[in-house]
Amino acid sequence: MNKITSICLMLSTLLLSGPSYSEEPLVQVNVLSPEAALELAQATLTDCRAAGYQVAVAVVDRMGVSQVVLRDRLAGPHTVDTAQRKAWTAVSFRSDTLSLARSTGPDSIQSGARMIPNVLMLGGGVPVEVAGQLIGAVGVSGATGGNEDDQCARAGIKAVIDKLELSG
What we know:
- A hairpin with a 4-residue loop joins strand 1 (56-61) and strand 2.
- This protein is of the alpha+beta class.
- The protein has helices at 2-16, 34-50, 79-93, 97-103, 146-167, and strands at 56-61, 66-71, 125-130, 133-141.
- It has a single domain, classed as Beta-Lactamase.
């Protein structure tokens, strides 16, 4: 009887004490405003055009939800979905898709990551960070290859990063 009482007492203490958080239970995050996302997409598109590329640009928030999608006049019909998937992949994996393409090749131990739905391991998706915090990602599709898509995305980020850092 004494053993059963002790077990019941321990269980009731655990149940009544409630959850224990090692960190704060709520987290505050920064998100891009629609205006900032549009400015980022436009800066990226401008850089791609200057390089002679007709592309689609997608900007997603930190959760991978599209905020802005721009498609240049002559960009292929596939480029919109491709840009969105690249941006989603970059924010989801918190890494640029050019690096992910290299590290998830067919003979790599991480190759299975390519099987995750919506993932696209092609260069052109770049995460956007402000003060060490992920706030979104840019995806570009339609240049001559993943390296060029990546360069356009990085140029777009570079064009607006100072403004984002000042507001953050």
